[in-house]
Give the backbone structure.
Amino acid sequence: MEKIILHPDYLPFGIAVAAQRDRIGEPIFKYGFNAAVGTAAETVWLQGGSYTWQAAATVVSVTSANAADDGDPVGTGARTVTLEGLDANYAAISETVTLNGTTVVDTTASFLRLHRMYVVTVGSGLTNTGVIYAAVTGDTYTTPGVPNTATGIMSTIGAGEGQTLQAFYTVPAGYTAYLTRVSAGSVDGTNATTITLRSRTVGGAFRTKEKFVAFKSTVSLEHDVPLVFAEKTDIEIKAAAAASTTDVAASFDLILLS
């Protein structure tokens, strides 16, 4: 097969950024799933319901709903997880914690936002056994490993997923985000789903940026002229079913430029 050689100065912008030819640009791909979206709008994330945006940075408590997710060498599930997000100044931070089953493990750093959480090391099960929760510190746990206060949950990893599935993001300080694509869909063949991409600046109200309907299909909107979001802007995808509960998957692509 004959190779095609592209001159580096003529690479499409997206490919150039993905290849990190321009170190200033950083591609961000956010994707989420909600298995039970009702008729009231919900955030597209694995936990379900509307996401609560925390007003202040907090130490994060990490637990699993299954004792097999344990940093002890005999643990068969997840052993360590990495949290990535923003601190009180909207600067990017990350931390890796060692799990202790259903017992709370607190982060050293305080997080204002959690963009992602993923399993790093595992036992013989090769991924997490139970749902892993990252929640505002100080909550109580009536069910072992499961935070009582839903509004304090900042991220979850579904059992066996190894990675958060959450269609929301906050632009770090010092960056502008350019949204090049938004996509969402459902396999439900009897129930149309309304999808809303919305955002808010610091101290402001959420505003709808795009709204569309998916019906037993995936709708993808490409933006040759990207939508522009300033630093510290919260971005999320919400969905609402027309009549009954439905599943929704959604994603969006950003390019960060400083």
